[in-house]
Structures are given as structure tokens and as C-alpha cells.
Write a structure and sequence with these properties.
heterodimer, A: 5-stranded mixed β-sheet, 10 helices, 49 strands, B: two-stranded antiparallel sheet, two-stranded antiparallel ribbon, globular
Chain lengths: 990, 464
């Protein structure tokens, strides 16, 4: 048994098992043979003579026959197996055993940023998704592809609006500052500002725009997420929140031949859910009851819905305002080729997506990407150039999202349009909900990312490298205010105006590096030394133009009568670092990895700019020990690893240490715009991790269990201040310690592996735990009423709900200290609003050419109740149907308080909204992704003259199982629910 | 281990070579505070900045969240015509602790206090500004600070008295007794009156003078029932008829730099492209309500106080008639759309000084003088002088007439009515009869909940 254990080096050489038997044969003679794999003969293998178009297929028994010359080479191709090329020579019979194209998990190369490491040898925690999984999803943001696929990684697209930045949290929230939790994004070695782009639009301002939206999903080779100290410390001050490494596809030398990849799909999306709201008669009777209960006489002023509006009118506002179908289409083409020294890949894509809102809104995106690789003949000099360019254009409107309007607009509200097609204003209270469409917002982004990597091997084992990166992102936002957005009575007062914003991000980075590898006996050493110089300039310019003669002139600021600068900022950020890594291993069994970095950042005051970060990681492959080999023969791989180290965060606004004045918008004035603090410095994040990785039954089942603990101290915050200080926050370090701990489990199994049928599963589970460990004198800070020591950061502090008062019929909450008021002292119910646990389960089935992939995401969490997304029962505005069961007399079910508009009733309702009554279970199981593909059989491919081809149907957010009663368990009640998307398409390689 | 690292990194020569690299210049849209207070020109800009920003700060600007709007809604001069919950809360005297307008009102006042304190400290800590200018600038910001605290103390009662820009001293400041706040207001105003000159620069009445400070001081004494001082100060204003007068044409009172203005806030300073007052934009009704941008109208209660011959009813009030309703609205500011600026928002007006002196004199038993002052206002409005109709009017009746005249004269200007009802102790008596949910504790707005959340030392007003 022990002799059967593969030695590590053998594992590096992908099971190069190839059996060839041959006989002599004459030139241009018939050649025949049998093709098999581990399971027996294979029918349908494509056999081609290299450089020609002629070929054949193997029959039911795996036999084939063709005629070829002595100098020809045969190419054997079969789906899911490695392609084999064999020279004919003098053989007349060539039997081949094809090997399944499955790289053993332990052999996968993992990108660790400045270096790569084999899965088996890594000492840090790195999760990876590859192109195959990324391509399966009909979405726009690369980050969304991580949803449900990685333990310890929370990705949430808060709303169904395309182009908005998803939130991503790696191992929880480390910083008390809400914008201090972004991971570092690195695309092909270039750091990309992970802060969402500012947008002024009401739809877009909260989440901001996704800085990664202009990447082409089909051009991503892999996304790696670095989580623990060992993996992140080499990024020093910027590694505190983890790192997302995106690697784009490279060309591969292909003996001078060119491959063309084509991928097309088209699809349809709809809002996945709607609420049940009151019908017109139900609404009217609720309103009438409110006036009766309060003893108030309805007037046109306080009850336009009862007196001015059609009491029989009805509009399904959800249908009207977010019920449209959004169509999408996507085209992706890539060319690649080259030889063993030169390779290239050139690609382009176009994506267009409609909107579920009324009006002519859409999102379009186009990308171009180029990669060039060159290797000198002596293999010493290497060049890698990659350029990614993308443009997107988002047509939206300036206004609140329609979801809120759809949920609150009374069902008998007047029609939105008049017969002549213009907006109807008669009797609308406030504004016609569709008026915002007359305030179109167009947001365009274009993003160039260029990276040049040069390396030269001066001695054996010693490479000098330099990475040069440049990124340029331009974002333009134009909002046009047509006067039709207002009540016609105001038109005389309204000049046509525009708001034009432009944001620019420019960044260059130079990273010289030296890498040295040497093996002495059983000891292998890997040393990397490097430095970083980075310069970022972010600019922002806002201009208001007024007094355009006509709508058609509003694209040009010169057509405005007057214009003024709303804002103009140029922010410089500079960053410098030296870093190093020493990797040691003994006998490929014991691994030690040391990393360190010294960083300087311009975001801090003069004396606080530099700091050191470091980490130690180690691993022991115990399955390499004789003791384990003897006793646990079913264990094909076993590793224990652990790491500890520090990283930091400088994610805070620039220049907060300066006491400065800016110009007022009125002439000749200066005014202070912020409080300043010269003393703040780095946030420190200490990470500890221990993990066990095992492979069972010849790696048919792989499992990794990790435990982590991240402790963030010296919290750098926009410290909230009461307005009496003049402003509402100041940047400062806080004596607070936040701890995130958790267990992560990843399990992948090959359940069935057959020729015709196979089934693979992979499961990930995360049990996160976050806690504010200490916070000295929290009671005397402005955080006193937001956080609780000993509890998670994401908590809700609520009153204790006390049922409905049998006398007034109103909600009651407990006045805990009995002082006759309801205030923070009474908010004693602490609810963890974060995820209790979450996970993803992916199953992949393949039957012959047909494959099916299902990804389920499960999250156990709580959210606020949709009941309190509405206003108090009886008030103007529509309500969910549950409000029909409002309390009327003692003994009634206590769901909804009495129908009343009195101040007392509204206060009671608002108090209940801040009580335990407002928290609901919002756990859900969602079929995030379904993908069904059919790979065209060889005979069809032959006829079509293509290499590979598949047709597919894919669906996103197809099903959600939850007890939550709001629009969406993740987004709550106010946001556009995630879209349910179904696409079908075609993939071809020529 | 750490040592190994330090030595490796040391060789990277980071410490010295790179320190310069991470030194960035001050961004091109900012000037550091020290530079600002190193020259006359820049220091003057810092104070101009405050006056510019007043047009953009809620308390001061006459828009939805201003003292003008919220005060008159809380009293009996305005009513809502649009179901805007935040405003309806003020109208019904049911301001919730979370009311966002209330928070903005409060926050804007303290932001202005910060700007004033920063200038005071900047002038104190830096040399380079000429003594003459320093005195003027100091006087101006002291006035603005006093003006702000006057409103804060009247709207909220005890409030934190913030006199430094250092947030480390302020962030947990408790509330200060109202007497202490009034002392500070008077101290600031007396200093301002000493430091400031008598003339408006370039005829622009947008920066305060010695007389502006005295005019506010007269009002403060009136509010503190220090009748004698109030009379002396208002007399000094009224005596200065070269600079101030009551305009006979009521249509001209609110024009920019009108002779009746003691201090105005200019829409030009706000930097908006269409320099019209917020009051004109918000109050003038030109389509059937409800209109969310124009959420209020004058109450019928106020309209009922005017006699048909009252010129103020004719000039300052207009009606919008729908089929079923008549909506009365203020027309003190007439220009809601324009290419040039013709009106300024009136912050302090000369007519008030006559009313202050009338009241101060009446309380001291100087009835003839009081009647004379009151009649100045009445006569201009084309009302019969008291002197003719009731020359022997008693003190109480005269005081009532003065309050009525204040209401009719000063409606929709900084919430005078709300403050007058409260300081004369009639607020519950008057509002209790017309506002069903009135409670005595409604006389003070709640301290915004968010402020209490962030500063546990702040206590809440009674009744909230």
C-alpha cells in the first residue's frame, strides 16, 4: 500500500498516463485503434489530422479508422478529457487511453497576489472561483458571481437596479465606519479603488456605482479572495478587509492556430416579488374609519383621496411602477492564438439590459480586452501586457425608486397620464409618481486598466520583475430637469436646468520586485522582495446649467443661459511600501511562510504616516507522514495550517487632518467644511487562523474547515458628533476593539463519476460571529446608543413591545425605567441583524452532452418587518392587506393597532416601529443560479465545422423560499426586489 | 522574527526615500485656516462666507425648515395645505423627537455658531489682520452668534452654550440655563455694538452695523421684560432717521436695501442662479393646493384680524381662489422668478422697533408715548390711530393692541408670533382653544432625538 502513495512530484505532473501500442505501417495507410478511458471504450471521440479539416469519430465500441501519412499528427478530442496529440510515424494501430480533464484540487495553482502557490502548499486562506462558474451567470457585476460560492464572503446586491455597487464583506464587518469595510480590489496586479463611485441620483446615491461594472465577465479567468493574515499581510495596510484578486484571461500558445470563441445570449427579467396591498374599497373604508375614529371631518385638504378622487378608481401601482419586463442581450467574442513564445488574446463584448420601471430606461455596456505574452527563446525574459477597456451607459431617472411610490400610493389615486399622453397633475397630492421620468439621469463610465509585467531571470532561481499599472476611470452623470416634472402651475417659475457631474480617477503604480528560489536538499526557499509606489488622483466637478431654450439643447452646457460650479475637488492620494516574503518548506511536508510590509500613506498627518505589518503562516502535510499513510489509507491528503499577523486600513477620507476653508457658493466667501484632527492613524487588524484540509478516497471528497479570529482595534472612524459641535462627524481613532470570529466549511465531492453520467457537489457554510469586545467609556461617546459592548456591530436596539393597549387600541412599548418617556434608556431589546449563518450548495449533473448546474444560497438572518415600511393605519397612503385586521375592540387580534391619524396614534406606531415588533425572521433559501447546457455532439460539430459548441438556458433568482413577508428578505421592503432573469444562448469555439 | 523583517525592509531604504513621496499638497479647493487669518482679504472672505451661508442654512433662510415657516405654523398664522407630515407636526404642535425638520433647524443653527467661533479663534490666534478690520469682523460674527442663540433659546429653552470650535470640549456639552444664555447673548451684542461702525458698507444692508446689534439688544431686553433698557435702545434706533424710516408704500418695504431694513439676508449670497427669496418661492400660491413645493397658506384666524381698510391686507396678502376654497398667502415678497435680484429676506425690520418701544413704554406706564409709537404703525396701515379712537385706553388693553399689531405687522417674518405668545404667557390660552392637541409643554420644541443619541448629557424637554 505504502508504495502506491504518489510522491508529491508525481502529483505535479498531471497523471501523465498514456498507453500507446503501435505497429509498423506503410505511408498513407489505414490507421485504426480503440479509444478508452478508465471506464472502458469511448464512443464519439473526435479524431482529426492536425492541420487538416478531415477527421472522424470513434464508434460505439470506441473503435476508429482513418487514413493518414507518416508525417501526420493525430489529435484526439473528447469532452471532459484532455486532448491528446500523437505523431503517426510508422504505426497502423494507435490505441489511446484518454485521461479525464480534471485537475486534482490540490494541484490547482492559486493566485496569492505577488506570487502563486499550489493549493496543496498554501499556508493561507484563499478561495477561488473560475471562469466556468463565472460565465454561468447572466449578470453585470463580477462581485455578484461570488454570491453563495465562497465561505466567509458576503456579497449582496441590495437592489435590482443594474450598475449599482454590490456590498461585499469578507469575514464580517471590521470597522465601525460604514465605508471602512471595502476589501482591496486588484485587477491583474493593479489596485482599483474599491469605493463605489459617487452618484447624486436618488436611485444610485446610496449604494453608489460599481467600479467593477465595466469589466467583461466572460474575460475573467478567476477571482481569488484572500482572507487570513498569511494571505493578506503582503498587502499590509490595505489588507484588513481582505483582498479580491481578479485575473483576466490570457492567450495561450496554440501552435500558430487561431481560436474564436463566441458566446451569445438573450433573456428577460422581472421583479421577483410583489406585496398584497389594499384594494380601493378596502382603502376607502380604512380612511373613513380613521376620520370617524378621530372625530375629524374630512376636507379636501386632509382627505383628497376621499373627497377629490374617484372612489372607484383603481390602479395596481406595483404593476404600473415596477412590473415591466426587462429584456437583455449579450454578445461576446474572443480571438486567441500564438505559439510557444508568443501568445495573444483579443476580445470584445456588448451587453444591453432593459428596466422593470416604466419609461425608456436601459443599461448598456461594451468592453474590449487585449492580452499579449512574450517569452524570449532562452526563456529568461518574459513580457505580459494586458489592457481592459470598458464603457457603460446607464439611463435612469432622478428620483426615488418607484418601489416606495408603488407601495404607498393610494389605489384610487388619479391616473398618471391624461388622454393626450401628457402627465396628469389634477388632484395629485405632492407629485405624480411618474413625474420623475421627466428628470432623466444618464450615467456613463469608461474604465481603462493597463498592466505591463516584465521579468528577467538573471541567474538560475533569481528573477527581477517590475509591474507597471495604469488605471483611468471617467464617470459622467447628466441629470436633466424638464419642467414637465413639475406641476404646470409652476412652469413659469422653472427654467430648464441640468446637473452635470464628472468624476475622474487616475492611478499609476510601479512595483519592482526580486524573486529568488533555491532548493538545498530537502529544503526549498522562496524569497520575494518588492516595493510599491502608487499615486492616485481623484477629481470631481459638478456644474449646474440653467435656462436652456429647449430640451434638445440640454446636452450642451454652452446652451445654458447661466451656469455655475457646484463642486470641484481634486484629491491626491499617495502610497508607498516595501514588502517581502520568505517561503520555506522541508521535504514538501513542512511549510513556513513569512510576510511583511512597511507602508506609508498620505491620508495621515505628518508624524503618523508609516507603519509595519507582518504575518507568519505554517502548514504541515501530515498525509505525507508514514504514520498516517499506514493507518489511514483512505486519507489521500491531509494538511493542518495556521497563521497569525497584522494588517491595517487607511480607508478614510483624505485630508481630514487639515484645518481648512473652502469657497462658498456665494461670491467672495470662505467657510469651514469639516472638523479636523491631526492625530489619527492606522486602524490595526490582527488575524488568527487555524485550518484542516483533507482529501478522502483518492480526493473524491475534499474538505476544508477553517476557524478564524480577526480583531480590529484603534478603530478609524468618522466619529459621529452631535450637531452642537458644528458638524456631525470628525475623523478619529477610537479605543474600540471589534472581533470577528467564525467557522468556515468547504466540502466538495465527486458523488458519481461515470462516462455518461456524473454528479459533483460542493457545499460551503459559514458561521460568523461578530462582537464589540471593548469600548472604553462608550456611555460617554456618541456611540452610546448605537452599539453595545459584548454584542455584534450590526444590531438593532428596540423598545420592548407590550401589545395593544385595550383602552386606546394603540401599540404600547415598555417604559423600562418608568420615567414617563420613551427614549434610548428604554431600548433594551438587542437583536443581531447580521447573518446567523449562511452557505451555498452547488450541484452539477452531467448526462452525456447535457449538463445541469444548480446553485442554492441559504442565509439565516432577520430583517425589519414590512408592516412598518407603511405608515400608521388610517393615514393617507396605501397599506398591506394585513392592515384590514386592525384592532377595533378589546379581544381583537393584536397585529395592527387601531385605525387613527392622531398624533398619539402616529407616535405609538413610530414607537412600535422601533420595538421588537418590527423584527422578523428573514431567512431564505434561494435558487440563485440554474444553468442547463447541451454540448453539441461531435458529429454535429463536424458538420458545422466548429471545435466546441453548446446551447444553454440560464436562470438567476428563479425561486426563493422564505417566511419573510416583505418584498425581499435581503433588500427589505423599500428596495427593488432582485430580478428573476431567464436567458438562453449559444456558445461556440471555431 | 520581527527583527529579521526590520532589517530586510530597512534595506529598502523606505523610511527616508519615501517620506517625501507620501507628502501631498493641500488640495486646490482648500485653504488652511492659518492662511485664512493671515491677511485682511482672506479674513474678510471668511466672514463674508458666514453671511453667504446664512441663505443656505435652514434656521435663517425662510424655506421649509426655517424659523419663519415653523414658528408661524406652531403659532396661529399659517396652516398646511399639503399632507407634509413634518410640517403638519409643527402645525398641530405635535413635533416628534425624530422630526427631521426639527433636527435641521437645530443643526443649522449650531453650524453657524461653529463658523462664528472659528472666526473668533482664527482672529485671536493669528496676527496679520489689521486692527480695524479685526474689530469689524469680530463685531459681525458676535452679532450672528447672538442672533442665533436668541432663536435657539426661544425655540428650545435651555440649550448647550457653545463658545469654542473645539469638538473635544463641545461634544458632550450639557444644556445651559436660559439666563446664562441670555447673558451671553447680551454680552456678544454689547461687544458687537462697540466694535461695529454705524454705516452700511456700500449701502448694502446685508452686514450688521452698530445699530443692528442695538436693535437686537432692544428686542432681547423686551423679551427679558427689562422695559427701560428696551426703550432706551429702540429710541436710539428710531432717532436715527437718516438711516431708517417707515416706508409709506408697503410694496417697497421688502425690497433689497430698503430704508426699513435693519438687516437683510441676500439670495445673491446663497449663490443660487435665480436669486429670489425662499419666502417668495414657498409662499406664493398660483395653482390649486395641494402643491408639495408650496405647502402652506395663511390661517383664517390671521385673516380675520384685518379690517378691510388695512393696507397690509391689501399689499402683503393675496388670495388664490378655487371652486370651493380661498387660500390666502403672504405677498410680502412678490418676486418668485427673476433674472436680477430685487428683494432680500428681511431678518430685522425698523417697524419692529416702534412696536418694541410701544410695549416697553406701556409697561412702564408711559401710555401716551406708547400710543404714539403704536399709531405710527397703525397709521401707515391706514388704520385709525388709537389716539383718535381710544385715547384713554388702559394699559392692559393697549398691550393687547400692541400684540395684535405685532401679529398683523410681523407675520411670516421669523416666527415673531410664536415667540410673542410664549414670552407673554398667552400661548396655552390662545392656542389651546384652536389646536385640539395642544399641551402646555408644546411651547418648546423637542431636542432632536439624534442629538440626544450622540450626546447622552443632553436632557429632553418635558412632554417629549
Amino acid at each position: 500500500m505504502k508504495n502506491n502513495r504518489p510522491k508529491p512530484f508525481f502529483q505535479l505532473v498531471f497523471y501523465a498516463l498514456l498507453f500507446v501500442s503501435y505497429q509498423l505501417a506503410a505511408q498513407g495507410q489505414a490507421i485504426s485503434g480503440t479509444l478508452t478511458d478508465a471506464l472502458g471504450p469511448i464512443p464519439g471521440v473526435h479524431i482529426l489530422i492536425k492541420g487538416q479539416h478531415s477527421g472522424t469519430f470513434s464508434d460505439q465500441d470506441g473503435r476508429y479508422q482513418l487514413t493518414a501519412g507518416v508525417s501526420d499528427t493525430l489529435v484526439f478530442t473528447y469532452l471532459g478529457h484532455k486532448t491528446v496529440e500523437l505523431p503517426v510515424g510508422s504505426h497502423t494501430q494507435i490505441n489511446v487511453q484518454l485521461k479525464e480533464d480534471v485537475t486534482a484540487l490540490q494541484e490547482v495553482e492559486v493566485n496569492a497576489g505577488y506570487y502563486t502557490v499550489k493549493e496543496r502548499e498554501r499556508t493561507g486562506n484563499i478561495s477561488k472561483v473560475t471562469a466556468e462558474e463565472i460565465e454561468l451567470q447572466p449578470i453585470v457585476s463580477p462581485l455578484q458571481t461570488l454570491e453563495g460560492r465562497m465561505p466567509g464572503v458576503e456579497v449582496e446586491q441590495g437592489s435590482g437596479i443594474t450598475g449599482l455597487a454590490p456590498t461585499i464583506r469578507i469575514r464580517g464587518t471590521n470597522s465601525l465606519r460604514s465605508d471602512g469595510n471595502h476589501p482591496l480590489f486588484i485587477v491583474d496586479g493593479i489596485p482599483l479603488n474599491s469605493m463605489p463611485l459617487n452618484s447624486v441620483g436618488e436611485l444610485t446615491s446610496q449604494a453608489g456605482l460599481d467600479p467593477l461594472s465595466t469589466l467583461n465577465l466572460n474575460n475573467i479567468e478567476s477571482i481569488e479572495v484572500l482572507k487570513d493574515a498569511d494571505a493578506t499581510a503582503i498587502y499590509g495596510s490595505r489588507g484588513a478587509n481582505g483582498i479580491v484578486l481578479i485575473t483576466t484571461k490570457k492567450g495561450r500558445g496554440n501552435e500558430g492556430r487561431t481560436l474564436v470563441d463566441i458566446n451569445l445570449y438573450t433573456g428577460i427579467s422581472q421583479a421577483a416579488n410583489k406585496l398584497h396591498l389594499l384594494s380601493t374599497p378596502q382603502y376607502i373604508s380604512m380612511r373613513e374609519a380613521a376620520f370617524e375614529n378621530d372625530g375629524v371631518t374630512p376636507t379636501e385638504g386632509n382627505a383628497p383621496d376621499l373627497l377629490l378622487w374617484d372612489r372607484n378608481g383603481y390602479t395596481d401601482w406595483q404593476d404600473r411602477l415596477f412590473g415591466a419586463s426587462a429584456f437583455s442581450k449579450n454578445i461576446n467574442v474572443a480571438l486567441s492564438g500564438g505559439d510557444q513564445y508568443t501568445s495573444y488574446r483579443i476580445g470584445g463584448s456588448f451587453h444591453k439590459q432593459g428596466s422593470v420601471f416604466p419609461g425608456d430606461l436601459d443599461y448598456t455596456k461594451g468592453t474590449v480586452n487585449i492580452h499579449l505574452g512574450q517569452l524570449s527563446k532562452d526563456h529568461r525574459f518574459k513580457l505580459d501586457l494586458s489592457v481592459n477597456y470598458g464603457v457603460d451607459n446607464n439611463h435612469l431617472f432622478f428620483g426615488n425608486n418607484f418601489v416606495n411610490s408603488a407601495l404607498v400610493t393610494p389605489p384610487n389615486a388619479p391616473p398618471v397620464y391624461r388622454e393626450d399622453g401628457s402627465l396628469n397633475w389634477e388632484n395629485w397630492v405632492g407629485s405624480n409618481p411618474l413625474a420623475v421620468l421627466e428628470q432623466p439621469q444618464e450615467t456613463k463610465t469608461d474604465n481603462l486598466l493597463a498592466n505591463l509585467g516584465l521579468s528577467y531571470s538573471i541567474l538560475t532561481g533569481l528573477d527581477l520583475k517590475v509591474n507597471l499599472g495604469y488605471s483611468k476611470l471617467d464617470n459622467q452623470e447628466l441629470i436633466k430637469f424638464y419642467k414637465e416634472a413639475y406641476n404646470p402651475s409652476l412652469w413659469d417659475f422653472i427654467a430648464l436646468s441640468t446637473n452635470n457631474f464628472s468624476a475622474k480617477r487616475r492611478s499609476w503604480i510601479i512595483e519592482p520586485q526580486a524573486a529568488y528560489t533555491r532548493t538545498v536538499g530537502k529544503l526549498a526557499v522562496d524569497v520575494l522582495l518588492g516595493g510599491t509606489f502608487q499615486n492616485d488622483r481623484n477629481s470631481y466637478l459638478g456644474i449646474e446649467g440653467r435656462g436652456y431654450a429647449d430640451r434638445s439643447l440640454m446636452d450642451n452646457l454652452a446652451s445654458a443661459d447661466e451656469s455655475r460650479i457646484l463642486a470641484n475637488e481634486n484629491v491626491d492620494y499617495r502610497y508607498v511600501a516595501g514588502f517581502g516574503r520568505v517561503g520555506l518548506n522541508w521535504d514538501m511536508k513542512y511549510f513556513l511562510n513569512l510576510t511583511g510590509r512597511r507602508d506609508g500613506s498620505s491620508r495621515f498627518g505628518a508624524d503618523r504616516r508609516f507603519s509595519n505589518f507582518w504575518a507568519v503562516g505554517g502548514a504541515w502535510i501530515f498525509s505525507g507522514e508514514k504514520w498516517f499513510k499506514d493507518r489511514l489509507p483512505f486519507l489521500s491528503f491531509g494538511k493542518l495550517r495556521g497563521s497569525y499577523g497584522t494588517t491595517g486600513s487607511d480607508q478614510i477620507g483624505d485630508y481630514g487632518f487639515l484645518d481648512t476653508y473652502e469657497a462658498t457658493s456665494g461670491a467672495g466667501g470662505l467657510y469651514p467644511t469639516q472638523l479636523y484632527n491631526p492625530e489619527y492613524s492606522w486602524e490595526v487588524n490582527k488575524k488568527l487562523e487555524a485550518a484542516l484540509q483533507i482529501g478522502l478516497f483518492n480526493d473524491r471528497a475534499d474538505m476544508e474547515v477553517s476557524w478564524y479570529r480577526n480583531r480590529s482595534s484603534n478603530q478609524l472612524v468618522g466619529y459621529p458628533l452631535p450637531a452642537i459641535t458644528g458638524f456631525t462627524s470628525v475623523q478619529a481613532n477610537l479605543p474600540a476593539l471589534v472581533e470577528n470570529t467564525g467557522w468556515e466549511i468547504q466540502l466538495s465531492t465527486a458523488n458519481i463519476r461515470g462516462r455518461d453520467f456524473s454528479w459533483d457537489s460542493s457545499l460551503n457554510l459559514t458561521f460568523p460571529n461578530s462582537r464589540l469586545v471593548e469600548f472604553e467609556n462608550i456611555d460617554r461617546t456618541s456611540y452610546a446608543n448605537r452599539y453595545r459592548v459584548g454584542h455584534p456591530l450590526n444590531i438593532s436596539l428596540g423598545y420592548r413591545y407590550d401589545g395593544i393597549d385595550p383602552e386606546t387600541g394603540l401599540y404600547q412599548v415598555v417604559d423600562v425605567n418608568g420615567d414617563g418617556r420613551f427614549n434610548n434608556d428604554d431600548r433594551v431589546v438587542i437583536t443581531d441583524m447580521g447573518r446567523a449563518y449562511y452557505g451555498g450548495l452547488s450541484n452539477q449533473f452531467r448526462y452525456k452532452g447535457l449538463s445541469l448546474q444548480l446553485l442554492f444560497e441559504y442565509i439565516a438572518q432577520k430583517n425589519t418587518s414590512y408592516i412598518f415600511g407603511a405608515s400608521a393605519p388610517g393615514t393617507f397612503n396605501n397599506k398591506p392587506v394585513e392592515f384590514l385586521n386592525a384592532w377595533e375592540r378589546p379581544g381583537d387580534p393584536e397585529n395592527i393597532q387601531k385605525v387613527s391619524q392622531s398624533g398619539q396614534a402616529r407616535t405609538a406606531f413610530n414607537n412600535a416601529a422601533r420595538s421588537s415588533l418590527n423584527i422578523e425572521d428573514a431567512s431564505f433559501l434561494r435558487l440563485k443560479n440554474l444553468s442547463l447546457s447541451y454540448h453539441l455532439p461531435g458529429t454535429v460539430l463536424e458538420k458545422l465545422n466548429v471545435r466546441t459548441g453548446a446551447i444553454f438556458v440560464r436562470a438567476q433568482n428563479l425561486l426563493t423560499f422564505t417566511d419573510y413577508r416583505g418584498l425581499d428578505p435581503q433588500g427589505g421592503t423599500g428596495a427593488v426586489p432582485p430580478l428573476r432573469t431567464i436567458t438562453c444562448g449559444l456558445q461556440l469555439t471555431l | 522574527m520581527k527583527k529579521l523583517w526590520m532589517s530586510i525592509i530597512g534595506t529598502a531604504l523606505l523610511q527616508y526615500a519615501c517620506e517625501d513621496f507620501v507628502e501631498v499638497d493641500v488640495p486646490d479647493n482648500k485653504i488652511v485656516s492659518e492662511t485664512v487669518f493671515s491677511s485682511d482679504e482672506l479674513a474678510n472672505s471668511a466672514v463674508t462666507g458666514i453671511f453667504n451661508e446664512l441663505f443656505n442654512r435652514d434656521l435663517y433662510n425662510g424655506d421649509f425648515r426655517s424659523a419663519t415657516m415653523l414658528g408661524d405654523l406652531s403659532a396661529d398664522n399659517l396652516m398646511t395645505t399639503d399632507p407634509n407630515e413634518q410640517l403638519v407636526d409643527f402645525e398641530q404642535n405635535q413635533v416628534l423627537v425624530g422630526n427631521s425638520y426639527n433636527l435641521e433647524l437645530w443643526s443649522s443653527a449650531y453650524n453657524v455658531v461653529y463658523m462664528c467661533n472659528a472666526v473668533i479663534e482664527g482672529l485671536r490666534d493669528n496676527e496679520g489682520v489689521s486692527v480695524e478690520l479685526e474689530e469689524k469682523l469680530l463685531g459681525e460674527v458676535l452679532f450672528v452668534r447672538a442672533f442665533t442663540y436668541f432663536h435657539l433659546v426661544n425655540l428650545y429653552g435651555e440649550v448647550p452654550l457653545i463658545r469654542t470650535s473645539d469638538y473635544r470640549e463641545n461634544d458632550l456639552a450639557p444644556r445651559t440655563a436660559t439666563t446664562e444664555i441670555y447673558d451671553a447673548v447680551m454680552e456678544d451684542l454689547e461687544s458687537a455694538a462697540n466694535l461695529l461702525g454705524a454705516e452700511y458698507e456700500g449701502g448694502e444692508r446685508t452686514r450688521p452695523t452698530k445699530f443692528t446689534a442695538m436693535a437686537l439688544l432692544a428686542r432681547v431686553h423686551l423679551f427679558l421684560e427689562e422695559w427701560e433698557e428696551a426703550e432706551i435702545l429702540s429710541t436710539q434706533l428710531i432717532g436715527n432717521n437718516g438711516m431708517f424710516s417707515l416706508l409709506n408704500d408697503l410694496g417697497e418695504v421688502f425690497l433689497a436695501n430698503s430704508h426699513e431694513a435693519i438687516w437683510q439676508i441676500s439670495p445673491l449670497a446663497g449663490g443660487a442662479l435665480s436669486p429670489v427669496t425662499h419666502e417668495a418661492r414657498v409662499f406664493i400660491i398660483n395653482a390649486p393646493p395641494p402643491i408639495s413645493q408650496k405647502p402652506v397658506a395663511l390661517s383664517s384666524d390671521l385673516i380675520g384680524t384685518y379690517s378691510p381698510r388695512d393696507l397690509r391686507r391689501e399689499h402683503w396678502i393675496e388670495v388664490f381662489q378655487t371652486e370651493s376654497n380661498a387660500y390666502y398667502f403672504p405677498l410680502k415678497y412678490r418676486t418668485a422668478t427673476t433674472d436680477g435680484n430685487v428683494e432680500h429676506s428681511m431678518a430685522m425690520r425698523f417697524a419692529e422697533q416702534y412696536l418694541i418701544r410701544a410695549e416697553a413704554r406701556a409697561h412702564q406706564g408711559k401710555l401716551p408715548g406708547a400710543i404714539e409709537d403704536l399709531d405710527k404703525i397703525r397709521e401707515r396701515a391706514n388704520l385709525e390711530p388709537i389716539w383718535n379712537v381710544a385715547p384713554s385706553i388702559g394699559m392692559e388693553a393697549l398691550l393687547d393692541s400692541i400684540q395684535l399689531e405685532r401679529r398683523r405687522e410681523l407675520f411670516t417674518e421669523w416666527g415673531h408670533r410664536w415667540l410673542d405668545l410664549k414670552r407673554t404667557g398667552r400661548v396655552s390660552e390662545v392656542l389651546g382653544t384652536i389646536k385640539p392637541s395642544w399641551q402646555d409643554t408644546d411651547a418648546l420644541y423637542p431636542i432632536p432625538e439624534e442629538e440626544i443619541n450622540k450626546n447622552p448629557n443632553l436632557s429632553q424637554n418635558l412632554g417629549y
